[in-house]
Every structure is written in structure tokens, then in C-alpha cells.
Amino acid sequence: MVARKGKFDRSIVEGPIRGAVWKLAWPTMLQNIIGGLQGLVDHAMVGHYVGYVGNAAIGVSWQIFLVVVVFISSLFTGMGVLVARFAGRDEPDKVNRTVYQAFLTSILLVLFVLAPIGFLASPYLLDLVNAAPDVQAEALPYMRILFVFSFGMLMFFMLGGALRSAGDAQTPLRLGIVLTILNIVLNVVLIAGLGPIPAFGTKGAAMGTVISGGIISAYALFKLFGGHWVVAFEKGMGWRPDFQIIKQIFKFGLPTGIQGVAMNVGGVLLLAFIGSLAASAQAQAAYVVSYTQLFSFITWTSVGIMGATAAVAGQNLGAEQPDRTARSVHVAAGFGLMLAGAIGATFLLIPTYLLGVFGMEDPVVIGLSVDLLRYLAISGLFVTVALAYTGGLQGTGDTKSPMYISMISQIIVPLGICLGHQTFSTLEAHDIWLAIVLGHLTRATLSVIVFRRGKWRDIEVDISERRPA
């Protein structure tokens, strides 16, 4: 089966620009929110059946796992650059070949890098983050299950990026909803046990995650080889790697991986500063609830905006419409500001109610949390603008600039401010909260400046035509 021209949604490069951005943005944002809520459900169930040690084990495991997976899955960003550009040119054969090569590369990375190294290195990684012995006992099998059987999750990430870049954001949303429901059902059974199925506790959460990912991936492969989606795998493609395509995937993807690792490292170092405060336990609790949980509603939607912007920008540049590409990024930033402003308003108007959902009662923790939420209400505006313009840069092939911008804004600026206060005066919680805001402001400012310079207009993306069999 050979893909034919005319299969892509041409409204992305020909119709109203607001409609094109929103068409891809809303399913992606909703999918991110649903996926994020799944994590909250996991924590709630494990906390109920296992206790806080299980919650700590999941938190530590994912902190380590995400650093590795963010780097490996960066190749999907590179894949997305190529797919969007070729979809904009209406070249389905190149789209399909690119996604297939990303699929083959994922198999090799999981089988020969992620699974064996992750299995062997898990105990040392847990020692590295100073996890307590009882936490390590729960976290070790959880981590090993994630590392060894992670292909289903990676396949889901790859497929979502491929379809979105090709103009279809609703299929990943539907798959994400099914994945979440399936994961929750499996967790209910495997964490607590049901009938003849024993209670696996924390391990059950990992088992539910990888089994649901595996089922969705098997279904996705059936659809891809059957030619039912906008991206398709042709049965005659074979197993031979195409190093011309793979090289370009890594060329555009690796900077994103480095960026992701750097941001995670910056987050860990920021936690170290919070841990040095006089009321460190209360400050860490405030940070976890206000920043990693409540603020996630802004980051989830903003990351959705970023993914949609990358697809629309890349497709329009592929269709040789750079001015339309620029407009799409401005429109996406406007959508993001409206959503971030609405969510941020709740941080200002009903902070104690939001904190009450997490059962926070300690007056010191509540005071620190309310103070942090005031800062985050402003910071969310900067984050959503930064991510919209990051999507514009990455979607057009400039993945290096966001990497440098993130290193400056998420590491040098906030950590430098904290170190300065700690060295020359007394570091207080509000100094760290302000450092977070200034880091996000720096990221937004630099992202807008770099995008408006317009060097992305000259980035060439192409692969050779397929040779006749």
C-alpha cells in the first residue's frame, strides 16, 4: 500500500489560522490534563493501600525515570520536525518513512539501552538520590518494571507526536482516554488485589502502567500497518535502518533531550535550596502542592499549546508560508495567555480552597503555599508565552535555541539568584519564589526575541526520494 497525496488536513496550511491552531491545541491540552490526572490517581491509590512510603517510591522512581526517558524520547521531537514539514508539503511517503524509522530506532533504544542499563543501574540511581531504605525497597521493583517494559509508553509518545505533527490531534486524545481508563482499572486490580489476583502494592502501579501502554501500542501497530490513520506503515518497508533519516531525527531531537535533562537537574538543585531553609519541610510541602500539582494545570495546557504550535508552524513552513508560520505562533501565545490567566486567577481568588483539596492544614504550610501561588499566578503568563514560542522554534527545526534558553532561564537565573541570597544575605522562601518567576520571565523574553529574529525561516529539512524496489 502506497500513501497517496491528499490525505492530510489542508486547513492547517490554508484555512483560518486561529482555527488551525485551536484544532490541534484543544485535544492536546485535554490529553495532557487527563494524563496528569492519571498520575494523581496513582498516588492516591498507592497512598491508600501502601502508605506514604509507596508514594515516596513512585515519586523518586518517576523523577529518575523521566530524566532518562525525556532524553531518549527527544528523538520524537526530531521526528515531529520532519513529519510536520513533509505534511505541509503534502508528501505522505516521506512522512511514513520518517515515522517508521523513529519506530525502529525506539525498538533498538529500548532493547539495548533503556531496558538492560535501567535494570542494572536502578539500585545505584536510588542511592544517588539518597532514597531511604524502606523507600528503596518499594522503588526498586517499580523502577525495574518501568525500565524493562517501557516500550509501550514510548510507542504511545511517538505515535501521539507523529499524528499531531501530521495534523491529527484527536486520535491521540482518544487513545489517551482509553489508556488512562485502562490504567486506572488495572491499578485497582493489581495494587489492592481482586479475587485470585494478589495485591502487588507499589509494583502493581508499575504493572498497570506498562500493561496498558502495551495494549494501546499493539492496537496502534495494527492500525498503522492497516493504513487506517493519516500516518501508515507499509508492509514492504522492512527492518533496514535508513541512516539518512535517523541522522536528521537525532540532529533535531538531541538538543531537546539535553534541554529536558538540564531542566530536570535544575529542578533537583532548586529543591536543594528549598531544603536549606529554616522551615524546609513546610517549604517543600508548599512547593510540591503549589508548584508541582496546582501549577501543573497551567503547564499541562501550555505544553499542549506548544505541541500544537510546533505542528502548525512546521507544516506552514513546509508549505512555504513563513509569514503564516509566524502568525500561528502569535495566535497560540494568545490562546495560552487566556487559559493561564483564567487558571492563575483562581490562585489569587480561592487559594485556601485549592490547598484544602490536598488536605493541607498546617498554618505555616498554608501561608507559604498561598504566597507561592501569588507568584505562580504571574509566572504562568510567562510560561505559556515561552512554551508557545518554543513550539514555534522547535516545529520549524530550531531546537538548539530553546536548549540554550532553558539552560540560562531555568538553571543560571533562578539558581544564581538563590546562591546570591544564600551567600551574601539570608535565603528566604519568597526569594526562591521570586527566582522561579524571574526564570520564567527570562525564558519568555528570550524565546520571543529569538523567534522574531527569524533565522528559523532558512532551516532546510529534506530526505531523498525512495529508490524504486
Unreliable runs, pLDDT <50, ≥5 residues?
A: none
The helicity comes to over 70%
Order of helices and strands: HHHHHHHHHHHHHHHHH
Number of strands: 0
CA gyration radius, whole angstroms: 22 Å
How many domain regions?
2
H/I helix tally: 17
Task: Compute the separation of the termini in Å.
Answer: 13 Å
Q: Can you describe this structure?
A:
The protein has 469 residues and is mainly α. It has 17 helices and no strands. 51% of the residues are buried. The chain folds into two domains: 17-241, no CATH class; 254-456, no CATH class. The mean pLDDT is 89. It has helices spanning 11-14, 17-49, 52-72, 74-88, 92-128, 133-148, 151-165, 170-192, 202-226, 243-275, 280-294, 296-318, 322-349, 351-356, 363-395, 400-424, 429-453.
Q: What secondary-structure arrangement, pairings included, does this model have?
A:
Blueprint: H1 11-14, H2 17-49, H3 52-72, H4 74-88, H5 92-128, H6 133-148, H7 151-165, H8 170-192, H9 202-226, H10 243-275, H11 280-294, H12 296-318, H13 322-349, H14 351-356, H15 363-395, H16 400-424, H17 429-453
Helix pairs in contact: 2-3, 2-8, 2-12, 2-13, 3-5, 3-6, 3-10, 4-5, 4-7, 4-10, 4-12, 5-6, 5-7, 6-9, 7-8, 7-9, 8-9, 10-16, 11-15, 12-13, 12-15, 13-15, 15-17, 16-17
